[in-house]
Amino acid sequence: MSKQRIGVLVMSYGTPESLDQVEAYYTHIRRGRPPTAEQLKDLTDRYEAIVGGFFPLRENTNKQVKSLEERLNADHPDYSFVCYQGLKHAKPYVEDGVEQMVKDGIQQAVGIVLAPHYSHMSVGSYIKRARDKADELGLSIQFVESYHLHPQLIHALSVRVHDALQRFDGIDKSSDIRVVFTAHSLPESILGTGDPYTEQLLETARAVAAQTGITNWQFGWQSAGRTGVPWLGPDILDILRTVVTEEQIRNVLVCPVGFVSDHLEVLYDLDIEAQQVARELEMHVERTASLNTDPLYMETLSDAVYSKVNG
User: Which residues touch 278 (CB under 8 Å, ≥6 apart)?
Assistant: First the structure.
């Protein structure tokens, strides 16, 4: 008897694959409005600053999708899992992934986003696009909304914090190093809507702090959009300035719990921009390694997907 095939729509933000695609990508983010020359140059410069314009996110995402498919089939051999990509702002778009599943004869599917924490502005928007297309094409699909407290995710993050703390030679790790957990900022307006994003992030941070025995920590935000509305803060750059001037803390470990792979918000916003501020302030700032295809993260995703298949 043939195994039941389960389609898995793996969704993420997306990225251009080369510098000549940046303008189209940015235009899509801006809902069809082309960026100004200044805005385009700023984003292009950021990509060029990352290893000379190498675009790691797409390759990282490809590897994560492939690794998840392998993990699902190894963990659950009674089924045949096939993973598809669906990107928010680049091809293949979320709708393309759903359409491809239907073309391939998939009748049952699960959608999951490469982001552990739910917000209606982020994960919720992916799910809506996928559900609308699935309903249109008659595909049965369920969704994982969050997995921010999965034990293996917390374990993976805790290992990274522990390992990164060892880079501070001769420093009292309990009192003289401030650990700052970060995630992508969103407009402050989500606070009045009952959105679970901020609380889920704090729950993850608390769990990692408890597992690693850290007490000297706080939460911060990064990569806020440049719009006319207030975004969640404080920003990581402001935190660095504050802790050194007001608390005389010169050792900071950044753990970007809201990001699961190396991309612009990690490789530029933290590794370049935050490090530049750290040098100006004569601080020692480190960050934890990204999850990427860590087996513990793949196990997290596999468990989350299978929980929907198995009811």
Answer: 240, 252, 284, 285
Does the annotation place 25 within a ligand binding site? Answer: no
The string over 157-188, giving b where at least 16 C-beta atoms fall within 10 Å of a residue's C-beta and e elsewhere, is bbbbbbebbeebeeeebeeebbbbbbbbbbee
Looking at the structure, do residues 193 and 252 belong to the same domain, yes or no?
A: yes
Which tokens belong to 286? 């480190």
Instruction: Check whether 265 is labelled as a binding-site residue.
Output: yes
State pLDDT tens for residues 275-294.
Answer: 999 999 999 999 999 999 99
Q: Are residues 173 and 38 in the same domain?
A: no
Tell whether 13 is in a known binding site. yes
Whether 79 has a binding-site annotation, put simply, is no
Q: What is the mean pLDDT of the chain?
A: 94
Where in the sequence is the domain holding 87, given as residue range(s)?
4-147+293-309
Claim to verify: residue 169 and residue 273 sit in the same structural domain: yes
Question: What is the CATH number for 300?
Answer: 3.40.50.1400
Given pLDDT bands bounded at 50, 70 and 90, which one contains residue 53? low
Task: Flag whether the pTM goes above 0.85.
Answer: yes
* Tally of domains within the chain: 2
